[in-house]
Amino acid sequence: MVIKSAQTGQRSSDKFEDLFINDKNQNIQNEIEVLKSRPLMKRVVDSLNLQFTYYKQGRIKMTNAYKECPFRVQVIRVSDSSRSFSLNIKFSRDNKFQVNRSGQVYSMGQRFTNGTDSFYLTSEVKGPLSGEYIVNWSSAAAAAATYSGALQVIPKTPGTGIVNTSIMTSHPQLGADIVNKLMEEYARFTIEQKKESSDKIISFIDQRVGVTGRELDSIQQVLLDYKERHNVIDAGAQSESYFSIMSESDKLINQQSLEIGKTETISNYLLDSRNENTKVPTTLMIADATLEGLIAEYNKVQIERQQMLDANILPDHPRVKEAKAKVEKLRIRILESLRNIRSSISSTIGAARKRNEESQSQLERIPRKMKEQVEIEQNLVGRQNLYEFLQEKREETAITRASTLSNSSVIGMAYPSGVPVKPNRRTIWLLAILLGLGLPALFIFIGEILNDKVTTRYDIEKLTSTPILGEIGHSFSKNTMVVNKTTRNMVAEQFRNIRSNLQYVLKNSEKSVILVTSSFSGEGKSYVTTNMGAVIALTGKKTVILELDIRKPKLLKGLDIQKGPGISNYLLGKGDLADMIKPVPGQENLFVLGCGPVPPNPAELLLDPKIDELFAWLRNHFDVLLIDTAPIGMVSDAMTLSKFATCTLYLVRQGHTFKKQIALIDEFYTGKKLPGVSIVINDVKLKPGYGYYGYGRYGYGYGYGYGSYYEEEKQKGNFFRKLLTGFDLQKIFGRSKRR
Fold first, then answer.
1. Which domains, ranges and CATH numbers included, belong to the chain?
2. Which pTM was predicted?
């Protein structure tokens, strides 16, 4: 719609209209706030009866049944109009219905209650009603707040009075009706505002007409009494010139007195506290440009302040306070201007009276009675002119009120949209696709960034050029020894695969010494050493395992062999080496040499010259020596023993070894600080999301058609543990103590 300005291009010369009507350009932003105000929307709610909202309950969702509901709820009594409530109305047969599933059945027109509130239903259609409906009731103020919050009023083009008005609702026809009714109520509101202004003007003129009429009647009665009492006749031709001068002077004095009366009237109006929030009534033709501008500005600020209050802006709001302060300043300036005008008029009247007195001195011979008659008649003429002027302005204002038009007009009515604006299916689909692809990728990326443990074979290969000898899968067996000549499970086959690869490292050496170490504790050195010894012994080679992790020995415990004298005893010269070596139960060609009692100085003990004798004796009596040593990343034992080794098996445990420790392996390999370093990946588990596990590039995976080659090791545990096999069980159920 367009909000029109009431001011014409040509400035009016009528001071009365300038002061009372104050036609100025409309402030579009103020009018937009009025359009969005709750009082105006409350008029729309009352007009369209939007306190009730009807919804049809469907199988999946509720739909707004605006103008489609076959009944209406009529209010008999609502005890608390500020409280919102809902009614669940379900129809059965014969137009019977239940309210809020209470079980009691009502008929159309029958009174029913909801707490302390009472209602009845009226049918909007002929025929039986069916279905379930939800009726929501809220106060007119609450409904107005809801709809005004959803309303949008936007200027179409800056600098013009054209605005676009729209609202988003769950029912398109409801939105169209609200917008159309809002524009209609705004037009009525502006007409009411203009008529209220006209009514105030008419009321003021009526008051002044009454006062002036009584003064006029009094002067007429005085003149009549004077003529009857003194029998006054015409003064004669000789006094006409003097009377002419006196008449002109008196006329000027009367005109100026009228102006003073106007200033006094306006001053009294401004000084009256009852009029502090209304416009200045009139200056009644006071010809003073400064005063006209001040009064026009005063009336404009009063109108703007009243518009802000009508738009529900609180009196304590800074804008309202600022307008009030501006009104007070203008009032003081107007009063000062009126005092200056009265002073100027008084000077003019003084000069006119002086001329009048000179004329009167020439009329000393004229009878005093004739002089008094002229004065009374001149006063009477002035009051008659003022009375006629006020009557004329009253008729003009009444005509203006009767022909009042709204300052807005509708360019285009609101029509309901046939296409839903929310939800946007295409946007939702696109967002769902982006989230479906992006979130998993983001989670995987963040997981990879935050993961500082070795997860895949690629994590090792990108950090070091050290060869990877093989991979050992996670074993669910309770026994440390998983390799014997009858086992064909996954882990046993992987140990056999490492044994085959080890031939390329040892290069058919007849007497081999294999050093097994890792970066820190818990990576499975004892487990791998034990089973590597078993798998090598199966080839017929006489193999011995040396428990040289003399700081935390646990190799014998894993083999269920009792502790006894061992390496520490031998190095101290307290035993025969042949008596200390024990065969491993159930394993041919496999023996173990325990560490003996844990010494207080293990590092110095390994530097004893008898350690050379130990290895020389063992090389003479065994084909393969496997050294289970302490973690090289923590202590120096492995470095001390590396001079006896043919090759080194460096263990890396999936999900346990830190990626930064791979740099240590690379340092040992490239710097040749350890002999023949090769990596063995331990405790490999199947993990989803990595094409790598199954067990590596050699095709070892859980159940991918290889059952004819080896037996599958069964997992122990409940259903959930089996279900989560593909996840990192070490993190979920706790790390294995053995490997």
1. 2-192 (no CATH), 197-409 (no CATH), 468-732 (3.40.50.300)
2. 0.47
